[in-house]
Amino acid sequence: MTTRNIKTARPVALRPHRMTAIVVGVLYLAGFVVGIGGEGLIQSILGQPDRLSAVSARGMTVAVGAVLWLMAVAGDAAHGVLMFPILKQHGERLAVGYLAARIIDAIFIAIMVLFVLLQIPLAKEYATASTSDAPYLHALSNVSVQASKYAYQLGMSTLGLAGLTLCFTLYKAHLVPRPLAIWGLAGYAIIFVGMVSEFMGSGLELASSIPGGLWEVFIGVWLIAKGFSPPDTTPASSATAITQGPAVGRAVEAPVVA
User: Fold this and answer.
1) Residue 229: φ, ψ to 5°
2) pTM for this structure?
3) Cβ of 176: how many Cβ atoms within 10 Å?
4) Which of 121, 104, 113 has its CA nearest to residue 148?
């Protein structure tokens, strides 16, 4: 009788939901780009002293900016849909809450876009209005701009809650490195507090968006490059996997008698 050693493999955990991670990462980066681009185009017109005259002359710029924002809206809703099956594995209520918050966020941003687009027909009326009608059109323009700001702040406040839900689950389930999840928790908490305080005229709207915005850029790159972290592999689960079938990975020795 002779005894020899045969290499038997221990399973290696693969990164789950790889394609979903890539798509979500791309949506984060694309949403950041189109959101910044849309906001820049819109504010370049609506920020003019004579807003209605500027919109009348460059209405297409406002329309393009609005379309870019609507693309960001679609991305917000897509985030909730794509992440739902992943988050559901770690808590159905959290998954449903995240999906609902993302949809509400998208609705408020869409309302914001609607108020922005209202500037275009107002500008057309202003171009042919009499001197006596001009003040009323300016007043309507001011009201719609303020309404768009309120809708944006409500949407971003909801985004803050959605982000807190997401990052809490990422932290609890170890789906990304914990320092990255903690960064997201802090960033979205700042967004929520900053946007709520904007209703009281704090002036923190832009500043409060920076930490969370940078996190979304970083997590987008991370998910494209790394994906979600694999689940923890316990010794018991490894032993079970070995007895159930062949796998590749770290070798263990098993005596075979010939």
Assistant:
1) -65, 145
2) 0.81
3) 21
4) 113
